[in-house]
Amino acid sequence: xxxxxxxxxxxxxxxxxxxxxxxxxxxxxxxxxxxxxxxxxxxxxxxxxxxxxxxxxxxxxxxxxxxxxxxxxxxxxxxxxxxxxxxxxxxxxxxxxxxxxxxxxxxxxxxxxxxxxxxxxxxxxxxxxxxxxxxxxxxxxxxxxxxxxxxxxxxxxxxxxxxxxxxxxxxxxxxxxxxxxxxxxxxxxxxxxxxxxxxxxxxxxxxxxxxxxxxxxxxxxxxxxxxxxxxxxxxxxxxxxxxxxxxxxxxxxxxxxxxxxxxxxxxxxxxxxxxxxxxxxxxxxxxxxxxxxxxxxxxxxxxxxxxxxxxxxxxxxxxxxxxxxxxxxxxxxxxxxxxxxxxxxxxxxxxxxxxxxxxxxxxxxxxxxxxxxxxxxxxxxxxxxxxxxxxxxxxxxxxxxxxxxxxxxxxxxxxxxxxxx
Length: 421
Description:
alpha/beta, Dna Ligase, domain 1, 5-stranded mixed sheet, ATPase_NBD, Cell_div_FtsA
């Protein structure tokens, strides 16, 4: 594959998407290949049927490679699921030679991430929030600055090791290397949010089929990450149960006739819905369908609100509004429901709400410029920094820092000897 191409692979509950693109100089992403197939063997971010997932990835890969006229060897893979956990930590480090070096930054970040995590968990991301040097706070890039003591505040995201291993195995069985693992919420943020929104304070919610990824940015930094194991499929399940319809028919009817604006629908408008067990199709008012959909969406939004209120430190919605001045951004496939903004604003006590759609795209834009592709597009844009790599082998990372530390100390001693003689 040409080295300037990046490949994103999003293994979701409803679809598996493989995207080939390149980052342009003007911050545009040029899309050259798209492979999309219905997902089988995936539920809420975890693999339930390995063979089905492998077949689906291979099918998506073949389509994308033919479209882009290239051979894919590695991918950036998204990770989601209720096993995702996050915490905010800090670390300190004594600065060598009074000026912050790359080694100092690597060391302070290593100290910040050196917390004990459960044996079944893996460290996925170490994302810097801010740095401090002595009494100076709020530093975004300390490299080259003078001082004695360096402090780093970081956001750590962990995932369940076995869940991720199964995803990795499916990808590797397709002959692909995994270049980078990225939490879906972080990827969606990279595709959707502006720097101004992050500075003002914003919450982005990616509502997919199986999960809702929540990421909260305050003062330009990621402060909270979580995943709720309820999403668009819950709506389809409600339709199927309420009207005794097959799951596949419920999903189709949701997409074709679903909305959250009951008053905009003619009370006399009727729709036909397939019944289970070979029974005759039934006819019902479209408004009845909307009532079911609106009830579930309101419940999903209330779950998000409850999660966010944990961050308000007892100050309720008013305190939350101050922290999230840029409001709520909703993206993902289930964000395409008509009337969602109005219902969300009501649930969130009139906070600003917008639907997040990917921008700054060129090439095969018409196929991906919708909220449903936020995660996979973000995989093309988000890159871990040299100092915030996701590494499944913390001991190796620690050993690297120790070796780097010895080399740095030795270099300082040699320089002093040269000065003296």
